[in-house]
Amino acid sequence: MEKALDQHKDNPQLSLLYFPKELSRKEPLERDLEFFNGPDWRDMLTPVTPAQQAYINAIERCASSPTPELLAAHSYVRYLGDLSGGQVLAKRLQKFNDIPEDQGVAFYQFDEVEDADTFKEMFRKRLNQIEVSEELQQQIVEEAKETFLRNIDLFREFDEDLGGTAMTEQEQAEHLAALEPERAKLAAEERARRQALKTLPPQPISQPSWHPSALWNSLAHAVGLA
User: What are the structural domains, with CATH classification, of the chain?
Assistant: First the structure.
C-alpha cells in the first residue's frame, strides 16, 4: 500500500493523506519480524496466502486504475484503524503472548505522531477536503467497506493457521480456556459488522459533483472506524 501511495504522492487528492514520516509501517513491521524470528527473518517468510493476495490485488487494482483516489479508502482503513483499534489489539497481543512491554508490537507504535487524537482529527479533516465526483466518492466508500472485510479475512486465515499449530493436550486446553471469552466476543463482533456492511445501502450524497466531498462522514458511516 505504501508503495502505491508513494507512486501517487503528487495526486492532488491523495497528497492530502500522504504522511510517509508519520504513518509508514514498513520499518516497524521489519522490527517486529526480527523480534519474533531473529536477523534471518527474511529467509523464514512463508508464501503469500489467498487472503493476503486478495488484499494485494485490490491495492494494485486501485493504484493502476484511472482513479487512484480509491487508495484513500485503504489509507483510511489501515491508518485510522491502526491508530485506534490497533492500539487495543497490540495490548491483547502482548497479554495473550506474554510479550515484554513495547516489544513485538512496533507496527502499532507511531513514534512520529506526537498526539494520536490530534493527528486523527487532522486526518479526518483532510479526508473531508478531498474533491471527487459523487460517483467516485461512493466508489471510495465501497472500496473501504471491502477493505474492512478483507482485513477480517486476514485475521480469520491467521487464526486458522494458528489452530493447526502442534500443542500438547494440556497446552491446548490451557490456551483455549484463556482465549475462549475473547475469541467468542471477537467472533460475535465480526459477524455483526460483516452483516452490517453487507446490508448497508448506498448513502445519498447531497453535494454537487467536484465539491469538497465530506468523505470522512461517508466513510465513518459505512465502516465506523475512529
Answer: 2-222 (1.20.910.10)
